[in-house]
Write a structure and sequence with these properties.
- The chain is built from 4 helices and no strands.
- It has helices spanning about 10-35, 55-80, 80-95, 110-135.
- The chain is elongated.
Length: about 140
């Protein structure tokens, strides 16, 4: 099946499932990192005014995955090689996302590495789920 013949519903459903799986993996990473003090409660997340907890980790894994599925579904209407373009864009956005944890005041290096690992997990699940949905 080519990417242009794959239904938009199938793509968004696949990325939602991928996002749910990414959320599970990232909650496990968070739980491990938190229990070993790599993500300390003493670090306050800007905007939340609280330490990082499980619900934001899960939500931050699931919502971007669904948005990515919608974005890819739109892209495939306009580009013949949408997956290649989407893949490249995903890598660029992943690299840019590595900057975000560095903006958390007083975040230790281990926390930054843990959060960036979670970013990699989300992008990997997004790309794999879209790839599976379009049959490549």
């Amino acid at each position: 099946m080519s990417e242009s013949n794959t239904s938009n519903v199938k793509i968004v459903l696949a990325t939602a499932i991928g996002g749910a799986l990414a959320a599970i993996v990232n909650v496990l990473i968070f739980t491990f990192a938190h229990s070993f003090g790599l993500i300390p409660d003493s670090v306050i997340i800007p905007g939340a005014n609280a330490p990082l907890t499980i619900p934001p980790v899960a939500i931050a894994s699931l919502i971007p995955s669904i948005i990515a599925g919608i974005g890819f579904a739109i892209m495939k209407k306009y580009f013949k090689k949408a997956f290649i373009i989407f893949f490249a864009l995903s890598i660029v956005l992943l690299l840019l996302s590595f900057l975000s944890p560095m903006t958390i005041p007083n975040a230790p290096r281990e926390m930054i590495i843990s959060l960036n690992t979670m970013h990699v997990v989300v992008v990997a699940f997004i790309l794999l789920s879209i790839r599976k949905a379009i049959g490549i």
